[in-house]
Amino acid sequence: MYLSNIFTNPAMQERYMDILVSSFLPLVKGAFYYTIPLTLITFAIGLILAVITALMRLSSVKVLQVIARIYVSIIRGTPLLVQLFIIFFGLPSVGVTINPLFSAIIGFSLNMGAYNSEIIRAAILSIPKGQWEAAHSIGMTNLQALRKVILPQATRVSIPPLSNSFIGLIKDTSLASTITYTEMFRKAQEIAAQNYEFLLVYTEAAMIYWVICVGLSFVQDSVETRLERYVAK
């Protein structure tokens, strides 16, 4: 019935087109002013946390290993939505109030840090032990070997899965709407609440997410192709 009305009723077609056109710019602004910056900030912070956590997991210090394992286990064992709710809605009950933006940054960064730490740890472990031995043979310390020999190689290994993680984060930021952060999906909710065309507006938002992710996928493919040529040489 809904689709038949669209195709047979000129007045409804005009109304739907007006809604699509009028909502497009606010949604795109929401994506470029809020969704993408939030993604970039949280991914960068999460990547720093991931490297630190991965190194803690690989450390010979048991306490650091335990702390890292507990952090990763808690974050990976609980839903991201629940983590955001605890930060934004739960912490005020103990006197800690954080605004929506910083709640989203904390939640997504912690989540990315835990998941990406496993990617980075696996990438470091994939480097042959002979690379460590070669670095030590020319007088490098463990830290120097890690920084100058191991991490550059591990970076090439980890880029494909980290790229997938980044694309996934673009979509996951829609969860920030549940803690009132005005990113793109929150904009879609506000627009749909005004015109009551939830299917139409949400589908338009979904298509914008899809276009962004497809564009990033092309960039990812290009980067991976360049890395393969570099490794082959």
From TrEMBL:
Membrane association type: Multi-pass membrane protein
Domain ABC transmembrane type-1 residue range list: 32-220
InterPro entries: AA_ABC_transptr_permease_3TM, ArtM/GltK/GlnP/TcyL/YhdX-like, MetI-like, MetI-like_sf
UniProt-annotated location(s): Cell membrane
Transmembrane feature ranges: 31-58, 70-91, 97-115, 196-219
Record's GO cellular component terms: ATP-binding cassette (ABC) transporter complex
Sample GO molecular function, one term: L-cystine transmembrane transporter activity
UniProt keyword terms in alphabetical order: Amino-acid transport, Cell membrane, Membrane, Transmembrane, Transmembrane helix, Transport
Family: Belongs to the binding-protein-dependent transport system permease family.
NCBIfam families per the UniProt record, alphabetical: HEQRo_perm_3TM
Name of the featured protein: Cysteine ABC transporter permease
Organism encoding this protein: Halobacillus litoralis
